[in-house]
User: What shape does this take?
Amino acid sequence: MAASQGKAKKEGLLERLASGRPIVGDGSFVFTLEKRGYVRAGPWTSEAAVQHPDAVRQLSREFLRAGADVIQAYTFFSTDDRLKLYKATECEQNTDTTPITTVQLNSAACDIAREVANEGNALVNGPISPTTSFVEGKGKEAVQEEFKKQCSVYMEKDVDYLLAEFFVDIRELEWGIEVLKKTGKPVASTMRICTLGDANGVSPGECAVRMAKAGADVIGLNCLFDPTSCIATMRMMKEALDEAGLKPYLMAQPAGFHSQEVNDKDKMGYFAFPEWPLAMESRLISRIDAHKFAREAYDLGVRYIGGCCGFEPYHIRAIAEELAEERGVRPPGYKKDCLWGDALAESTEPSEVWKANKDYWTKLVCASGRADATPLAKIPDMQF
Assistant: This one.
């Protein structure tokens, strides 16, 4: 049996991956903090790292306890162009409307992430995400300037590695990787795409090859699509990389929402759903789904496995438990984990005791509990 996760000499990202042991990523920050009242739906900016650091710290600790090997600095959509556009300070009911800057936000987020990571044996990553400047067509120089502002803080705070995530256009991602590589830190990169490819129809395989050739050490997918889509798209990326003779490490952090209606059909992913963004709970994957995803990803050759929007700490715990033997360690909170319902055997309630086995949970077909629910939603014709 794997041991409990404890403190050890901290290896870097590439050293851990080279060992063959899978890395468990963290999960949802943006969606989870929005549900808890610390993020404004719509802008989705991350000023909570400055305004509500205790909330970010608590969620980070929950992921660490669940078994995450990584604590991401919560800096999503934190470039100056985006913070200015959405007037991040004005969504709080106070008199201080002093603009929050990229440098200020990224610095605060890094401090939180490092504090929590040091409570275990976790790494800290400094992420960049798509810019408003790219959408506005301001060109490579302007876009890279936004990335450089973030990277300057990450270098000052000495994060363990850098991550370019949530990109939908391979061109912007290549520009981002170019900036990240110049820091000398390990670079991971992910795109929010399905089997249809990026925003301009560049195939997943070509995207993967271009990410690797741009210099990313770890490449893969995150967000917008569910684990089923993620595995299918990762397979396409791996095949193209193998054909090109390229061997970057692979990572997968899908959305934690079932998205069968759009998998392989709509590049918008969960953005296309009628329930998006305020009624997504009915689509949440179960912890059993997270177990299945972790195993399929590992068997495909993915060694950095986590989640994105919708992946709560208990989903990350399921990933960590599924891969406990491969990692040689169980999550810190394993003594409270009802793995495959084993603790239900201790219940005095007969309706729980008979479910204390893996076979029951792996064969369960979940119901919604609502007679008026539809299995698949009709995707609305978006009017922009």
